């Protein structure tokens, strides 16, 4: 599938991967799909981070009723589970030695200390934070009707490194845990941000 960066429509992901943010960084305007139904086992409530043991999937627990027929903006988070504490601890363990961790950790932790009822609210606030920290100026809008089909929203959770779109080539950057495993492409964009800081925006554009 070829991604038309002049008129792209993207689903809303949890701490989206590098391919996703590179699409936004290279576009003038990106529209976020707000009328789709929730898709099980997708990046909408999952992301991958880098650890000494390799990739680790972080998954947000959802309340019952998380099925293909539920509108994405109605999906509720299961806050009976201590998932925010667990995710934050995983991020600290994975990235507290990263060169730029200290520049972003104090503002990022605030999201993990605040209760969110809806997955949409959580994801959009984190995306806004990412765009601000990476200094991506792309205009973000929202669909006024359902726009994207399944081909554009496939999750590739079984092979997270596989690109969803053409014209994306994840380039190597200085990554943590190089002594333990090879470079891991297309993780959450946090991985690049913590490793490259204010160079992340240029890196994202170089991948297309």
Description:
The chain is α/β, with parallel strands linked by helices and about 210 residues long. It has one domain (about 10-205). Helix content is about 35%, strand content about 10%. It contains seven helices and five strands. The protein has helices spanning about 20-25, 85-95, 100-115, 120-135, 150-155, 190-195, 200-205; strands spanning about 10, 30, 45-50, 55-60, 140. The protein is globular. The protein starts with 7 loop residues before the first strand and ends with a helix.
Core attributes:
alpha/beta, three-stranded parallel beta sheet
Map the helices and strands.
Blueprint: E1 8-10, H1 18-25, E2 29-32, E3 46-51, E4 54-59, H2 83-95, H3 101-113, H4 119-134, E5 139-142, H5 150-153, H6 189-196, H7 200-206
Parallel strand pairs: 1-2, 2-5
Antiparallel strand pairs: 3-4
Runs in which pLDDT lies below 50 for 5 or more consecutive residues are 150-156
Apparent shape: globular
H-E string: EHEEEHHHEHHH
Q: How many discrete domains?
A: 1
Structure summary, number of beta strands: 5
Helix content: 25-40%
State the secondary-structure class.
Answer: alpha/beta
Largest sheet: 3 strands, parallel
Cα gyration radius (Å): 16 Å
Strand content: 5-15%
Q: What is the straight-line distance between the termini? A: 14 Å
Number of helices: 7
Instruction: Please state how the strands of the largest beta sheet are arranged side by side.
Output: 1-2-5
């Amino acid at each position: 599938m070829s991604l038309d960066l002049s008129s792209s429509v993207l689903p809303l992901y949890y701490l989206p991967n590098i391919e996703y943010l590179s699409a936004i960084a290279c576009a003038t305007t990106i529209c976020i799909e707000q009328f789709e139904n929730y898709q099980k086992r997708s990046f909408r409530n999952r992301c991958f981070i880098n650890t000494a043991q390799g990739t680790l999937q972080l998954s947000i627990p959802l309340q019952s009723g998380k099925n293909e027929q539920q509108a994405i903006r109605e999906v509720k988070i299961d806050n009976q589970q201590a998932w925010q504490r667990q995710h934050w601890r995983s991020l600290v363990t994975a990235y507290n030695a990263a060169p730029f961790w200290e520049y972003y950790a104090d503002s990022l932790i605030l999201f993990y200390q605040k209760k969110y009822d809806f997955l949409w609210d959580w994801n959009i606030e984190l995306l806004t934070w990412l765009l601000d920290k990476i200094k991506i100026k792309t205009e973000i809008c929202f669909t006024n009707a359902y726009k994207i089909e399944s081909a554009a929203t496939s999750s590739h959770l079984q092979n997270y490194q596989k690109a969803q779109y053409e014209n994306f080539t994840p380039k190597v950057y200085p990554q943590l845990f190089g002594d333990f495993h090879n470079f891991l492409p297309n993780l959450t964009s946090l991985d690049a941000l913590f490793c490259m800081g204010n160079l992340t925006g240029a890196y994202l554009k170089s991948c297309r």
